[in-house]
Amino acid sequence: MDALLANTQTVQGFFPFWDFQVVGNIVPIINGVEEQSQQATVICYTQKNLIPQLPGVGINWAGLLLNNETLAAIDSQIVTSLQNNSLPYKAVYTQVGTKLKLNVVLE
Amino acid sequence: MSFSVNGKTFTPGTAFDHATSMLNYMNNLLQGQNLPILQANNGNSLWWTLLGQGSLDSSFDQIVEQATASLNVPMTDDQQLINLLPIAGTILLPATYSIITFTVIATSGICTIPSGYHVPFGQYNFNTLTSLSVPISGTRNVQAICDTLGPISVPEGAIFLNSLAGINNLQSITNLFPAIPGNPTETPAQARQRIIAGKNIGVGIDGAITGIRSLPGVGQANVYWNYLTSGYLPISGLQFGLPPRTAWILVQNPVPNIAITYLSYMTLPTSGALFQPALHENYVTLAGQNFPVFYDLAGQQQIFAKVFLDQNKVLQNGYEIVLKNTVMQLNSSFGIGQRVSSEIVSVQLQNFQPATVLGVTLSLSSGGLYGLDVQPSFNSIPFFTASGIQVILQ
Fold it and tell me: What is the distance between the terminal CA atoms of chain A, rounded to a whole angstrom?
C-alpha cells in the first residue's frame, strides 16, 4: 500500500523531483500493478546516498554525470535493485536526440 | 605500525604498552634489591597510575606518528596533501573547457562568423576561437570553446542549426565530430596518484608538457623534440617530419601563456607544423629580445569498433544504447596520440550485464582491417561515435 506520487518533474533537466499527489485534500493510496510500477520507477531514479541511514540504496546517477561510473554500471545497479525488490520490471533506454531516455516497463 | 627516522625505529605504543614498560623497569630495580615485585592488576593503585601515564605517552606517540605521516604522500590527509603540492612544484590541476569543431556551410552568399561568436547548446555556449569566412556554397571548419569549465558532452551532430542571430548566408552549422570534453578540477585523490606515479617531473620536455597541461584551459598537451643535429625526424601526422633541434608543441585548446610556460622549461626553437595553421605567441625577455613560440592544435581521429556479443546470452532489449554510450564515455579520457587497445574497451564494459561480451576489435577506418589495438596520429585525440561502433551477435 503506497501513496500515489505526482508526475515526475526534473530539476534542471537532470534530477527527478518527487511529491505526493493530492486529490480533494487526500493523498490517494494505490495497490497492485500500479503500486509496483511506481515502486520500480522510484527505485530506478533514486540517487544513491540520499536516503538517511540507507547509504547503499539507490543508483549512482551522480557518478554517471561526473564520468566516475559507466552507463553499463548504472544499468547493472538498476537491474540488481529491481531484482532485490522482486519487481518484474526492466529498464529500456532510447536515444532522443542528444539525450538518453530511461523508461521503466513491465517485463 | 612503525617507521624509521634517521635510523631510529619508532613504534607508537598503546597505554598498556607504556604502562607495562614502566612496570617492568620498576620491577627490575626491585628485583636487584631482592624486594617483592609489583603486579599489574586492578587492585594495584600504582598500576592504575602507570596506565594513566601510559595513556598520556600514547597520545604523544599518535601526534608524532601523524606528524611523520603528514609528510608521507600516500598516508597524509587531503588538506595536508594540498599544502604539500607547491613543494612538488605543482597544484591541483585546474578544470579545462570542452572544445568542438563546427562545420559551416554557406548559401549563395559569403557567410562570415566573427571570432568569439556564441553558438548555443542547451544551457551552454560554444564561442568560436577564430573568425571564419565561408565562400559561396562552400564548407569550412571552425573550432569553438565552451563557456563552462568541465566535461560537456556533445555527441556528433547534436548541434545542427540553420540560422544564427546576426549571421547572414548561413545554410547550416553542425558538429560532425563529438566535442572533446574538458576535465573537471583534479581531486586530491587524483593528485596523490599523480605524485606517487612520479608524473611531476619539473624539468626538460616532461616539465614543459606538465607545465603546459597545467595551464587553465588546456585539456591535453604534448611536446615532441627532434634530438638530431641534422635531418628531419619522421613523426606520424607531420608531412615532412620535424626539423633538427626543434620542438613541436601540440595543445588541445589555445590559451595565453603557452610561450612563457614553454620557455621556462625549454629554450629550444619550436616548429609550427602542418596539420592546421600554426598559432604563435611572442615572449619578450628582460633584454627586449623577442622569442616567437609556435604551436599547433591537436586534431581528432575517429576510432571504429566491433563489439562481439554472445547471441545466446542477450538478456535485455535496447542493449546497444547502453553499450555504445558506455564505450563513448571513454572519449573524455583519451590523450593526444594515445594508443587505444581492445583491452581498454573491454575493461570499460566490465559491468555490462545485458549481454555477454566475447571480444572487441578496433580500426582507424570503417572498411579497414580490425585488430586488437590502433595507434592514432601523434597529433590527434581518438574518439568513438555511436555510428562507428558495430555490435555483432555471434
Answer: 22
Is A96 touching B (CB cutoff 8 A)?
no
Check CB contact of A100 with chain B, cutoff 8 Å: yes
The rounded Cα B324 to chain-centroid distance in angstroms is: 22
Which one of B327, B353, B384 would you mutate to disrupt binding with A, by most A Cβ within 10 Å of its Cβ? B353
Nearest chain A alpha carbon to B185: A66
Using a pLDDT cut of 70, give the percent of chain B over it.
Answer: 97
Q: Which cell numbers hold the place of B166?
A: 546576426
Nearest to B322 among A66, A67, A93 (CB): A93
Please give the biggest Cα pair distance in chain A: 44
Nearest CB neighbour to A70, from listed B122, B321, B348: B348
Coil, helix or strand for B105? strand
Q: State which amino acid sits at residue A98.
A: T
Burial B189-212 (b: 16+ CB within 10 A, else e): eebbebbeeeebeeeebebbbbbb
Measured between CA atoms, the residue of chain B closest to residue A80 is B353
Residues with Cβ within 8 Å of B59's Cβ and at least 6 positions away in sequence, in order, are none
Threshold 0.95, pTM exceeds: no
Report yes or no: A3 and A29 within 8 Å, Cβ to Cβ: yes
Instruction: Say yes or no: A30 contacts chain B, CB-CB below 8 A.
Output: no
Contact check, Cβ <8 Å, B351/A73: yes
Q: Which of B158, B332, B354 has its CB closest to that of A98? A: B158
Q: What domains appear along chain A, each with residue ranges and CATH number?
A: 32-106 (3.10.450.40)
* Greater model confidence, A14 or B170: B170
The mean pLDDT of A12-20, rounded to a whole number, is 62
Model pLDDT for residues B5-51, shown as the tens digit of each residue:
778 888 889 999 999 999 999 999 999 999 989 888 888 889 999 99
Give me the amino acid identity at B285: T
pLDDT digits (tens, 9 = 90+) for B140-198: 999 888 998 888 888 888 899 999 999 999 999 999 888 888 888 888 998 888 888 77
What was the pLDDT predicted at B34?
A: 92
Q: Do B348 and A79 touch (CB under 8 A)?
A: no
Mean pLDDT of B211-239: 83
- ipTM value of the model? 0.73
Torsion of the alpha carbons at B201, B301, B294 and B261, rounded to the nearest 10: -30
Q: Residue B19, CB half-sphere, CA atoms under 13 Å: how many? A: 20
Interface of B with A in 299-358 (CB under 8 A): 316-318, 321-323, 325-326, 329, 332, 348-354
φ, ψ of residue B163 to 5 degrees: the values are -150, 150
Q: How far apart are CA B155 and CA B167, in angstroms?
A: 24
> What local confidence, expressed as pLDDT, does residue B199 receive?
66
Q: In what order do the strands lie in the sheet with B160-161?
A: B118-121, B124-128, B139-149, B97-106, B170-174, B160-161
Residue A11 has pLDDT above 60, yes or no: no
